């Protein structure tokens, strides 16, 4: 039952995280996350759908992480690499999300997308089924170089942003404030969802012990 709860949180989080990405991509002229800037740029330059590029990049990052430090890679890391791209493409294919109207409503939708990503990220990470490909990549580099994860994240995402920009990706205001909105939401959600999982697992253990004693 404990594993079921964690997997439920994990898959629900991935689904929600991907939904947030899809919302942001619909409003991409306002600026999107550096990794998505790169995905969109590759899509526009070389073809293949956006989610496919997300999968390709995730697999490449997992390979590098595997060489540097296998400890951050679990089954959830591989599932993350595949499913986020698949879910994003699925939401975009359904074509039910609002398209950019180039007005104030676009800003509202972008903020909703970023918050949704933050909550989804906190939800799937709370399950502790493995670091995401990008997180695992940055954690393994930080450990290898003996530097802080925060510093490595800034450097890596800056390099990714520059590459995406050079390829013609959508960089604008929200590209630079994305993290300032998403990170606090992620941290808050992660803490809350971890607490919920612990509470649910304790209740489950109490039920099992009661049945055993009976």
Automatic annotation (TrEMBL):
Coiled coil: none annotated. Pfam families: DUF6198. InterPro entries: YczE/YyaS-like. Keywords: Membrane, Transmembrane, Transmembrane helix. The chain crosses the membrane at residues 7-26, 46-68, 75-92, 104-124. The keyword Transmembrane helix applies. This is Permease. It comes from Ornithinibacillus bavariensis.
